[in-house]
Design goal:
The complex is a heterodimer of chains A (316) and B (376). Chain A is mainly alpha-helical and 316 residues long. Chain A is built from 13 helices and 4 strands. Helices cover 72% and strands 4% of the residues of chain A. The longest helix of chain A has 35 residues, at 20-54. Helix content of chain B is 24%, strand content 35%. Chain B has 2 domains: 3-96 and 172-248, 3-Layer(aba) Sandwich (Rossmann fold); 256-368, Nucleic acid-binding proteins (OB fold (Dihydrolipoamide Acetyltransferase, E2P)). In chain B, helix 3 (112-122) crosses helix 4 (127-140) and helix 3 packs parallel to helix 5. Chain B is built from 9 helices and 20 strands. Chain B is elongated. Classes of the chains: A mainly alpha (316), B alpha+beta (376). The A-B interface holds A 210, 212-213, 215-223, 226, 230-231, 234-235, 311-312, 315 and B 70-72, 91-93, 97-99, 101, 103, 105-109, 118-119, 122-123, 166-167, 170.
Chain lengths: 316, 376
């Protein structure tokens, strides 16, 4: 990057015929950018490149990789070969983890919207002074480590946890409901962790909403639900999209939540990738899975961007 | 009863049915220190097919009253009746009343046509009926060619028309207009004033129009209610309000006026004889429903008086201090005997161009029926 910057500068300085000030400005710009560039190159682009390379190598017997080109990892992402008769079939285990990840991330996004929209609406319609207090309250969970918060949810959901104890002692239940180590537990965990990421962009959109339009719609025979559907939702659409992206993407690759709340069986992509790098000792497959996750995120992003570009975007 | 009889014109008002009745409505916002009485025991009846204007300065409660009729707010006390039925408790979407907002409040994510059709669509009307009504409305406000534009792509005056069409499309029983012309420039405002009158005539819908612009109120309305500090001070035809203001505020707020102290000599049947400071007596109109006595204030509009050289016979006399020429008319600022300021406005018609000069001692003649006694 630094080389490119240098050559770029050399090129422009010739054309600008000794415009020293312009050259100085260019140099300052690159200088200011350099810390960010260094971090991006060292911490993101570099490792990503390594992951890309690893995904085309053979797995080592005791973790690591053998430096021989091989498509095995990518083959194993989607397909599996029967050990006895060599027939090829879809990798059911991986496929079900992909589907569960998509399903849970989608569910978490929907739930976050259903919980987050009324919350954001409530905050945005408070007097300006108390809004900041409510927003502050929304950010409080961020003060505690994610792992600790997730264990706290575990305490609530487990068989001897708060919910079951209360329901049992109240006589509502005869035996505890199994909530921990289910998809339900993961969904609740994801909802809890990523809810603020839905509330904040929604709040920003609703706060900018012209409530005279809401009155106008009421006046024109729209019931409360129809005002929501025909006026409020279309106008806060950018916030809905932003919130959904911010929840869906990290939820899709979540690691801590499915690991703690889903147990060993209910894997998501994040836990599967970790497994391949750890106990699975299959670094190439882990790398290939990581890149597949990235591709999924990119597809999701493109779908969202496309859906906002057409309409709604400019009215937030 | 004088004011009311003038308001009634040919006496038709008494026979007309009320579209909206506001009955002893009080509206209080907030509580404790921040308690604001926006409307204080207001009662008024708006007749069917009438162009009714609520006129008053900002903060007088006129918009609050409009919002109560629309249903955006609910009265703290009192009732609002629409064609005899109490609608006080109904939400806005259950009232056959539509509003044209000051800011227009057009939906930015919809086309002109979608905006106009919104009310009908929400009422559950079939698509083809909505489309037909939208076309009718576009024709009514002369906007056919802008049907498929986004509302951000049309001018302020055009947005105004769309807002009107949108509110008229569901054929409301009453149309509420909240200072709809205030954002337009002068020329456009004049056009829209005429346009609004035309629309009201063509649709036959009752219009309740809120404005702080007295000229707008006088030129457009069938009747005007003058409001101040949460109360309706006077209701009447523009002519009645202008010629026979009953309260100091009304006289002051609408047009220019001369205030004079006077003593009641005799009063009966809404007529009175008052003695002015000059010692001369003149006939005066008493305010509706009051029997004035003792010391009173009377008002005389500047154009209802004229200067005269023979000061001995004139009811008022004084010294001409300065003359302001306005083209169509001239304002003569006098100081009456007893150090009271008085303005006379005379039209510059060719055959009365007498040359009055500052410093002259002059008499002031007053037109018949031009002296109005105030309530306070």
């Amino acid at each position: 990057m630094t080389d490119r910057a240098g050559s770029l500068e050399a090129g422009t300085s010739g054309e600008m015929a000794g415009s020293a000030a312009a050259r100085q400005a260019t140099r300052n710009r690159w200088l200011l950018l350099s810390p960010a560039l260094v971090i991006i190159v060292l911490a993101a682009a570099g490792p990503l490149l390594i992951v890309l390379v690893y995904s085309f190598l053979q797995k080592g017997n005791y973790a690591g990789v053998i430096w021989e080109l091989s498509p095995d990892a990518w083959f194993n992402v989607f397909l599996e070969r029967d050990i006895f008769d060599d027939t090829v079939s879809f990798a059911d285990a991986h496929l079900s983890i992909f589907l569960r990840s998509l399903r849970l991330a989608f569910l978490a996004t929907i739930l976050a919207f259903l919980v987050g929209f009324p919350t954001a609406y409530f905050i945005a319609t408070r007097p300006a002074r108390s809004r900041n207090i409510w927003l502050f309250l929304i950010t409080i969970p961020f003060w505690t480590n994610l792992l600790i918060r997730t264990f706290a949810i575990m305490e609530i959901l487990r068989n001897e946890g708060v919910i079951n104890v209360v329901l049992l002692s109240a006589g509502v239940l005869d035996e505890p409901i199994q909530m921990l180590y289910t998809d339900f537990a993961i969904a609740v965990g994801l909802l809890y962790v990523y809810l603020p990421l839905m509330v904040l962009p929604l709040y920003a959109s609703i706060e900018k909403l012209d409530f005279r339009l809401v009155e106008a719609a009421y006046d024109l025979y729209a019931t409360r639900w129809r005002v929501l559907r025909h006026v409020i939702f279309p106008l806060v659409r950018p916030g809905v999209v932003a919130g959904s992206i911010l929840v869906f993407i990290p939820a899709l690759g979540a690691y801590v939540t499915p690991r703690v709340l889903g147990g060993g069986k209910n894997m998501m992509l994040g836990t599967l990738i970790e497994f391949q790098f750890g106990q699975g000792r299959n670094w190439p497959l882990g790398s290939a899975l990581s890149l597949t996750l990235m591709a999924l995120v990119m597809v999701a992003l493109m779908v969202y961007v496309r859906s906002t570009a057409g309409k709604g975007g400019e009215y937030g | 009863m004088v004011v009311e009889s003038v308001a009634a014109g040919a006496g038709a008002a008494a026979n007309r049915r009320a579209a909206v009745q506001v009955q002893e409505v009080t509206k209080i916002f907030g509580s404790g220190e921040e308690r604001v009485v926006a409307l204080d025991d207001v009662s008024v009846a708006v007749h069917e097919n009438e162009f009714f204007t609520l006129l008053g300065p900002s903060g007088c409660g006129k918009t609050t009253l409009l919002r109560l009729i629309a249903g955006f707010d609910h009265p703290t006390a009192g009732a609002i009746l629409l064609h005899g039925a109490d609608i006080s408790a109904l939400p806005p979407f259950r009232r056959p009343v539509n509003t044209v907002f000051q800011s227009y409040a057009l939906f930015p994510h919809m086309t002109v046509a979608d905006n106009i059709g919104f009310g009908l669509k929400m009422q559950g009307k079939p698509t083809d009926e909505v489309a037909r009504a939208v076309d009718d409305m576009l024709r009514l406000v002369r906007m056919e060619e802008l049907k498929n534009r986004q509302t951000s792509q049309i001018s302020g005056g055009q947005q105004q028309r769309v807002a009107l069409a949108r509110a008229l499309a569901p054929h409301p029983k009453v149309l509420l207009l909240d200072e709809p012309l205030s954002a337009l420039d002068l020329k456009l405002r004049k056009e829209m004033q005429i346009e609004l009158k035309r629309l009201q005539n063509e649709t036959g819908i009752t219009f309740i129009f809120v404005t702080h612009d007295q000229e707008e109120a006088l030129t457009m309305s069938d009747r005007v209610a003058v409001m101040n500090q949460g109360r309706i001070l006077q209701v009447g035809s523009p002519r009645a309000i202008y010629d026979h203001p009953a309260e100091r505020f009304v006289a002051n707020f609408i047009g220019d006026t001369n205030f004079l102290e006077a003593d009641i000599v005799s009063a009966a049947n809404g007529e009175a004889t008052v003695r002015l400071a000059s010692g001369r007596t003149v006939r005066a109109t008493a305010p509706e429903g009051s029997a004035p006595e003792g010391k009173v204030t009377v008002v005389i509009r500047p154009e209802h008086a004229r200067l005269a050289r023979g000061r001995d016979e004139a009811p008022l006399s004084g010294r001409l201090e300065h003359v302001v020429y306005f083209g169509t008319d001239t304002h003569y600022h006098l100081r009456l005997d007893g150090d009271v300021p008085f303005v006379v406005r005379m039209q510059n018609i060719r055959d009365n161009e007498e040359d009055f000069r500052a410093g002259e001692e002059l008499g002031v003649e007053i037109a018949r029926n031009a002296v109005q006694i105030l309530k306070d």
